[in-house]
Structure formats: structure tokens, C-alpha cells
Amino acid sequence: MKEYKRTTVTAALPYANGGVHIGHLAGVYVPADIYVRYLRLKKKDVIFIGGSDEHGVPVTIRARKEGITVQEVVDRYHNLIKDSFEKFGISFDIYSRTTSDIHHKFASDFFRTLYEKGELEEITEEQYCDEVTGEFLTDRNIVGTCPRCGAEGAYGDQCEKCGATLSPDELINPTNKNNPGHGLVKRPTKNWYLPLGKYQDWLKEWILEGHKEWRPNVYGQCKSWLDMDLQPRAMTRDLDWGIPVPVEGAEGKVLYVWFDAPIGYISNTKELCDQNPKKFGTWEQWWQDEDTKLVHFIGKDNIVFHCLIFPVMMKAHGKYIMPDNVPSNEFLNLENDKISTSRNWAVWLHEYLEDMPGKQDVLRYVLTANAPETKDNNFTWKDFQEHNNSELVAIYGNFVNRALQLTKKYFNGVVPACGELLDVDSNAIAEFKDVKKNVEELLDQYKFREAQKEAMNLARIGNRYITECEPWKVWKEDPKRVETILYVCLQLTANLSIAFEPFLPFSSKRLREMLAMDTFEWEQLGTMDILPVGKQLNEPALLFEKIEDSVIDAQLQKLEDTKRANEAANFEPEPIKENVDFETFEKLDIRVGLVTSCEKVKKSKKLLKFHIDDGTKDGRTILSGIAQYYADPQVLVGKQVLFVANFAPRKMMGEESQGMILSAVNYDGTLHVTSTLDQEVKPGSVVG
């Protein structure tokens, strides 16, 4: 395996059309941050590049809907995303944007280089556009039925359900994703294409022969594309928002967002190096030096762009290195349902940071523990609570708290000396001496879930050790023995503060503050002398706190509210029944009644017994099978309702029902009796 001098790490540019959610975090940003923090701890030369993707069609549609400029839209979400990342501890060296002047010039120059080298094909062909607005549509903005698997909502370039590569022409019943009511028409237009087929043999050799170590989902998706003939891919689009195509005859066209966005990694690196050349050197060494390792962290929907199209762009340019690895994750679902920004079915990072202050590491831990590294995985709030309470609190936090509190109690917070080691001590020490090697091997293979497990095993070892040794009992008979026990516990605690640093940076920092560890080295991990004898520790505090059911219930209620809002927005009434003539309708006698009493019918789960003031001396009794919708029938007393008065009486559960109360079933399955008169009327009044 080649030894590199430096590493360039990129994380997929989030689209500045909304916030960042837990699917993005689990798929891209948390694993990328773990990896970068790990390399920094090993004192490796590394940069971490991020930024907002601000071009494309969706931002223009949002701007139009809100009546503001596109720049105002991307400014809003760029600032929201950047602020969320900073508060969450995603440690970018730079987080810039694709609307910057540096990026515009860099992307334009990159395209111009390919154009002047003859690497682009000028093709005129008919493309779909919006019949109403006349706007040409990108492949991702055209949806329809997949011709391969029949899934609805397949994109014009790919079906996310079966993974088939598609073109808009292959979709069954293609529609405009952003304006479903607008028709699609085809019109001829000229654009510049990247001839992927020209590089197909090179791609096969580079990926299929040279990178068999890539994750199966990445390798497999690349292979499925490379097993077919690669077609030219448009690098320009007919849009008015984006980077103008820098060649003659390209008026009204911009660089395709999938051409300009990955170049953002490079332009953002240039911006970083220009700001601090003494620290970071030149951008060229990070992107054009063969001694640099390039790693892209992405979600699985970006595999083709980062493994085939972007590498071909760089190969065609001629000066750039290729990615050494593209550790793409699968998707994370939420409460057994696919995360969807359009349905607002997500846990948004900026909202989480407000709802769960100081709990960044809890979410980082849970997302890593459930990382969809090899298959789609699921996030539930109950599982989130379980990981926090049963692992972070009960295992890691419990061990740390016992070790520090007992040291405070017996030795005034001073690290005691280590005496003779018994077998129980030696066994515990032997168990964690290889933790550094194990964590490194896993992180070097991008196995973040297993690496975090290895770190948590340290806490399990510590908990088991302190429970077995019982220093609180031994103290009465052998204080010297307690010195050795707590010495071992404190060294284990110091090891935990280092082992968890890439995964849980906030709590690791707090723990080191309690341990008065002003400095630390990754090389110390697995050693037994991190804290010197006689060192005065600081005041201990709980590292993690239990999350109560009420906190989780509030989050579940927020999702339930979202689900109900979606159901309301998507409500479609049942089809109207066949017409009836007016004479038939006139036969129904619908009246207004006042509910004077309402109770459940004994031995019946369904029936409520109403007594209705219908304007007559005695009123009437009506039975209605709606008990399941009203836990407390008394809420109906005093309401005016509509009822059919001329149904023939019928017996139910030994009671006679003299009519039928009218009610309506709502979109969410709830039922409500009709009581929406705009003012009170006399019981017995005719409705018609």
C-alpha cells in the first residue's frame, strides 16, 4: 500500500435549498469528520474541504415561490448549513460556496481548458422543457415510472429503487417534478457534452482492476455502469442561474451543476490556500501531486458522479490525481420510512441543536452506531434514547463518574500511586493495550461503526474491572490496594478521552478538562502512564445525562404532526357517488337536534346511545357506531347535530334507534359528528 505525504478529504457539497438532516450526517459528514480528526491526531498532513452547492433549478423555483432573489435563497441556507456544521463539530478547514468569485473563475477556466483541448462534444438534440415556462429541465427534475421495475417517482437519470441507469426518454409518463401540472414538450438545443465512452476502458482498468477494495456498493454500482456503453453526458444546461458557459454561441447557458459542483472542492481548496499559504501551501499540491491521497465522502446517490464523471473530467484536464477511495454509505431511514425533504420527514440538524442543547455527541454516537455502511439502516427516537441511556450513560459515563468520584472521595482528587498488580489488574490492562492498533486498522478501512465499538469496549472493560474490584468495599480493609485500583481506572479513563476523540469530540474535551489533561497524544493510547502520580484532577461532573421519555415523546409528536400535515396537504376526497334525482333527495328528512345525553351502550364496543331533543315533547333515542372515536361521550352533550329523522326504527343490542346521526371521516381517520352550524337554531329545524 502506497504511503502518501498528505491527504485531501472532501465531503459532498450539500444543496443550499434546505437544511442538513440526519441522513446527510450519517451518510457523509460524521464519518468524514471522524476520519479527518483521526488523521490529525496521528499528525498527518490533511485538509478537510466542504461547501454549499448553490446552482441548479430547485433554488430558482423556491425563489420564485417566495418572491425573493435566488441569491437570497442560497445565502439563507448556506449560512444555516455552515452554522449547523460548526455547532455540531464538523471540523472543516474551509466551508465555502459555489457562488464565490473564486469558484466562478476556477470552474469557468476548467471548462475552457477542456473546450480548448477538444475534450468536449458540441451536440444539438431535443430536450424536455416546461410547456408553460419554456424552461429546459435537468434529468433530475423529470420524474416518471421506471421502465425496469415499475417504481413511481424514478428520476430522469436513475431509479433509486432498483438502481437502473435511465434517460428521461425511457421514463413512462414523464412529468415535471417541480411543476406537476405543467406539460412537457421537446425543443432542440445545443449543449457541450463530456464523451464518457472515450474513457470507458481507462475507467474499467482504474476502478474494476485497480480498486477492488472499494466498498461493495460503490464498486458494484460502478461496474453496472461500466458493463454498458457509456454515453456522452451534457456539461452545460439552458438555465439563467449558474456559471455562464465561457465560449461563443453559449448565450443563455450555464455550466451543468454536476460539472461545477465537484470543481467546488478544488476552488474551495484554492481559497483556503490563498488565505493561509504558510499553513496550507498551494492548492496544486493537494490536487495535482501524486503523493497526495484523495478521499471523497458521499452518499450512494452521488457514486456515479464522483467515481465516473468527475474522474473523467480531471483525466481529460490532464493534471489531476484520482480518488484513492470513495467510501459511500447507503441511506438512513427515519422511523421505518424513507427520509424525504419534500415531505419534511427528517430530523433537521439545526432543530436538533435547539431541541437537544449540549447533546451533539449523543447524535454523533448514535449515527455512527447505526451507520448505513453496507446497507440501508434505520433511525428511531427510541433507539436513540436506548443508546444514550444504556451505553453512553450506563457504561461509559458510569465508569468515568465512579472512577473520578471515588478518587475525589478517597484521595482528594489526586492520582494515587500504583502498587503491586494482581491478576485482575493485569488482565484489564492486557485487554486494552491493543485498542490503538485495533481502532487504527478499522479507521484505515473506513469501518467507523466497528471502530467506535472498539472505543466503547474500553469503557466496558473499565466498568467490569471497577465492579469486580469493588474499591468502595476494599477501602475499609486495604486503602493501599484501592490506590492501585483507582490508578488503573484513571489511566483507563484517560485512554477513553483519547480513543473517543475522533468520535465524540465534545465529551472527550470535557473529560480531559476533568482530568486536567492540558495536552495529549494519539500515541499515548493504550499506555498506562498518561496521568502522572500526584496529579491534581479537577472537579468531576456527569459526562452524559439520561434522556427522559418526555423528551423522546416530544420528538415523536413532532414527526406525527409532520405526518398529519402531509396527509392533510395530500388529501383527496373520495369520488362523488352517482347522481340522484331531486325527488329522491326530498324523501330524506334531515333535522337539527340537540344532544341532551350520550353514553356508551353496555356490552358494546361500538355503540353510543344519544338522546336527542328534536323539538318534540319526548325527543328521540339514536344509536350510532362511533364509540371508538369518542373516549368520553360527554363531550358531545350540548352539541347541535344533524340527523336523518325518517329512517325506520331498528333494534340494536336491545335498544331502539330512531334515526341516524350524520358524521364525517377526516383525512387522518378521525370521525366527527356534524355540528358546524354557524349559529344555534331550534331543535327540529329542517335541513334542506
TrEMBL record:
Leading EC class? ligase
* Alphabetical UniProt keywords: Ligase
Q: What is its EC number?
A: 6.1.1.10
Q: Which domain of life is it from?
A: Bacteria
According to UniProt, the name of this protein is Methionine--tRNA ligase
Native source organism of the sequence: Palleniella muris
Q: What is the lineage of its organism?
A: Bacteria, Pseudomonadati, Bacteroidota, Bacteroidia, Bacteroidales
